[in-house]
Amino acid sequence: MRGYLLAIFLSAVFLYYVLHCILWGTNVYWVAPVEMKRRNKIQPCLSKPAFAPLLRFHQFHPFLCTADFKKIASIYGSDKFDLPYGIRTSVEYFRLALSKLQSCDLFDEFDNEPCKKCVVVGNGGVLKNKTLGEKIDSYDIIISYFMKRKFFIHHYIMNNGPVLGHEEEVGRRTTFRLFYPESVFSDPNHNDPNTTAILTVFKPLDLKWLVELLTRGKINTNGFWKKPALNLIYKPHQIRILDPFIIKTAAYDLLHFPKVFPKNQKPKHPTTGIIAITLAFHICHEVHLAGFKYNFSDLKSPLHYYGNSTMSLMNENAYHNVTAEQRFLKDIIEKNFVINLTQD
Ligand SMILES: *[C@@H]1O[C@H](CO)[C@@H](O)[C@H](O)[C@H]1NC(C)=O
Ligand SMILES: *[C@@H]1O[C@H](CO)[C@@H](O)[C@H](O)[C@H]1NC(C)=O
Ligand SMILES: *[C@@H]1O[C@H](CO)[C@@H](O)[C@H](O)[C@H]1NC(C)=O
Ligand SMILES: *[C@@H]1O[C@H](CO)[C@@H](O)[C@H](O)[C@H]1NC(C)=O
Ligand SMILES: *[C@@H]1O[C@H](CO)[C@@H](O)[C@H](O)[C@H]1NC(C)=O
Ligand SMILES: *[C@@H]1O[C@H](CO)[C@@H](O)[C@H](O)[C@H]1NC(C)=O
């Protein structure tokens, strides 16, 4: 009798794995992952940040770790939400993606400064023709999120010519860069080995994409709203997965989005800029902003400091609530929770 039960149990386990392999289209499931733990050596910053009234938790470890992401999710309620704001029904996708990474650390082991001064660099067209670069480079932490931050520097070096690079506008350093499959760049010349690249996960497919890239599997590009990157310039040790709790905090606590949208409306999600600010609120003591300004009365004004997109592109966006975001930005600047570096 026992033997039968054991056999049934073992075949159930086997079936479970086989189903997973089919689901993922990979055969990498047999490799036992090394449990990735966070190293919590940094002492907490003792003075209270200006933006503390906005948050329920400050100094929250923002990256998921294999060893405890389920436990953390149940403490912070992320196990009660599906993606994009929680891990419910996607736990195995998260686990597999995390098993391909090598670290979930926030800062490197030699860093023992508990109170950090951070700048979040937006991609607003206002950075055009400004010379904030040197100032931006002077912060402890520089958080950025869009693809082209280094493009023109590369352009400048490669051509070795009179093309003025954008380093004057946005600086050279990037500590953290937020990305998603549709936004990450794939030209290896853009890789700064000192940058930690943070995946913001919106759908299970984003995790599958990461796993496929890191295991050199075939990339299935169906189901993305724009063609995702087909290679990753970051090494596994540079990559982290953002805890959906950060995005949930941005959506519900900071932007006050409703939890349910009417059927005829697409649910609104925070833009990466607001997610970057929310991340900064959880790991920094002082937060400054650069490049957060959009001019909606001039739809022809530049949207970014690079390329040719104009404001009209942002205005049409059905997935974001730009009005709510503008109001939030204005509010945190007026209350001196953050400092607005952008000059007129
Ligand atoms: C930036 O400067 C260039 C050249 O001086 C000018 O053509 C362009 O209109 C300026 N852009 C903005 C946004 O001020
Ligand atoms: C990375 O950081 C090291 C140590 O701070 C520095 O020497 C190096 O120049 C940096 N590399 C780049 C590409 O910025
Ligand atoms: C926005 O654009 C309009 C139209 O070009 C211009 O008159 C206005 O000064 C701009 N506002 C800001 C804050 O730059
Ligand atoms: C922007 O437009 C100019 C002129 O139309 C074009 O030469 C340039 O390649 C465009 N740049 C980008 C990034 O699309
Ligand atoms: C956007 O947010 C504002 C302010 O919170 C709200 O009044 C408006 O109804 C929202 N719009 C949409 C389309 O969700
Ligand atoms: C930051 O300050 C500039 C210059 O005063 C202003 O134009 C811009 O709108 C401000 N940014 C935000 C998000 O309010």
UniProtKB/TrEMBL annotation:
One example of the protein's molecular function in GO is: N-acetyllactosaminide alpha-2,3-sialyltransferase activity
Keyword DNA repair in the entry? The reply is no
Under InterPro entries, the record lists:
Glyco_trans_29, Glycosyltransferase_29, GT29-like_sf, Sialyl_trans
| EC assignment | 2.4.3.6
Instruction: Report the locations given in the UniProt record.
Output: Golgi apparatus membrane
Disulfide pairings:
C118-C284
GO cellular component terms attached to this protein's record = Golgi membrane
Question: The organism sits in which domain of life?
Answer: Eukaryota
Enzyme class, top EC level, equals transferase
Q: From the record, give the transmembrane residue ranges.
A: 6-32
This enzyme catalyses: a neolactoside nLc4Cer(d18:1(4E)) + CMP-N-acetyl-beta-neuraminate = a neolactoside IV(3)-alpha-NeuAc-nLc4Cer(d18:1(4E)) + CMP + H(+); a beta-D-galactosyl-(1->4)-N-acetyl-beta-D-glucosaminyl derivative + CMP-N-acetyl-beta-neuraminate = an N-acetyl-alpha-neuraminyl-(2->3)-beta-D-galactosyl-(1->4)-N-acetyl-beta-D-glucosaminyl derivative + CMP + H(+); a neolactoside nLc6Cer(d18:1(4E)) + CMP-N-acetyl-beta-neuraminate = a neolactoside VI(3)-alpha-NeuNAc-nLc6Cer(d18:1(4E)) + CMP + H(+)
Pfam families from the UniProt entry: Glyco_transf_29
Query: One GO BP annotation here?
Result: glycolipid biosynthetic process
Q: What membrane topology does this protein have? A: Single-pass type II membrane protein
| Keywords for this protein | Glycoprotein, Glycosyltransferase, Golgi apparatus, Membrane, Signal-anchor, Transferase, Transmembrane, Transmembrane helix
Alphabetized PANTHER family for the sequence: SIALYLTRANSFERASE (PTHR13713), TYPE 2 LACTOSAMINE ALPHA-2,3-SIALYLTRANSFERASE (PTHR13713:SF8)
Similarity-based family: Belongs to the glycosyltransferase 29 family.
- What functional role does this protein have? Transfers the sialyl residue from CMP-N-acetyl-beta-neuraminate to the terminal galactose residue on sugar chains of glycoproteins and glycolipids. It's alpha-2,3-sialyltransferase activity is specific toward type II glycan chains (Galbeta1-4GlcNAc) on glycoproteins and glycolipids such as neolactosides nLc4Cer and nLc6Cer, whose sialyl-products serve as precursors for the Lewis X antigen. Critically involved in the synthesis of functional selectin ligands needed for neutrophil recruitment during inflammation and lymphocyte homing to the lymph nodes.
Protein name as annotated: Type 2 lactosamine alpha-2,3-sialyltransferase
